[in-house]
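Quick one from the shared queue. A colleague (R.T.) flagged UDP-glucose 4-epimerase as missing a structural entry in our internal table.

Convert sequence to structure tokens.
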Amino acid sequence: MAILVTGGAGYIGSHIVRAFRLAGLDPVVVDDLSSGHREFVPDDVPLIELNIVRTKKLTEALRDHSIEAVVHLAGFKYAGVSVQRPLHTYQQNVQGTVSLLRAMAEHDIDKIVFSSSAAVYGTPDVDLVTERTATHPESPYGESKLVGEWVIAAQGRATGLRHTSLRYFNVVGSATDELYDSSPHNLFPLVIRALTEGHRPKIFGDDYPTPDGTCVRDYVHVADLADAHVVATQKLLAGQELEPVYNLGSGDGVSVRQIMTAVARATGIDFEPVVAPRRPGDPARIVASGQLAARDLSWTMRHTLDEMVESAWNARHQS
């Protein structure tokens, strides 16, 4: 039974491919390798090098594989950069999703798990985000993810497409040393890169209304996230009903300074981070409940903060 994973050569996508293989399912990857890595895709997993906005080519590519369901991660994922590149963001994320849905309809593929984002919430005014929290995206990236959810839901109402959207927060760590986060914008790779190059990592603001003055965020291990995708896909394949949206959150945030302390423990490097001024738009706290996903998707936090940090550090130093 083949599962199409768009963006399957990326950091999160490649972990999902790995999780499908461990579950006995056969992944097929579509990725244009703009931010993914060819070496992240196992040699025996089909890799279709293609941008999903090319509907005709995508439809032709799907013809050669007996795809039962789709996990859709492909897209432009940098929220900050999306402010400078809104048209590109909308083209890749919204037009890309529409293109994928057209290709799926052409081949009667009627099940999809969508990679959404906590960016749909913007700056929430609650201590714990739930699926009922109002959506107020503050970047073209967040907007495009919310529109993606809407488009998929509309296709579901029109055609019976079975779907669910998983909203991620801060995804970190590694399940294997061969797969790692290479983002130029995410906290973990930025901290690791700074230490590797002999620099002191930065904390942007230490005067927030939080226990230690630094921003509090929701960090989840990429392997736990990947497992939730497998369960969601399996339930759709089994004909079980799922909610339209799930938060994959920890329910308990971690501060940036706590991250720095954990990095020092994992690496054995004794350092004091540089405290820089606040960045505009950084909320003090964003933490989400994962209770709904725990109920339906066997979602649980199986990794400690130290395990998240150690696995991220080991993967970057083995790569």
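The mean pLDDT is 94.
The longest strand covers residues 111-117.
Added to the table.
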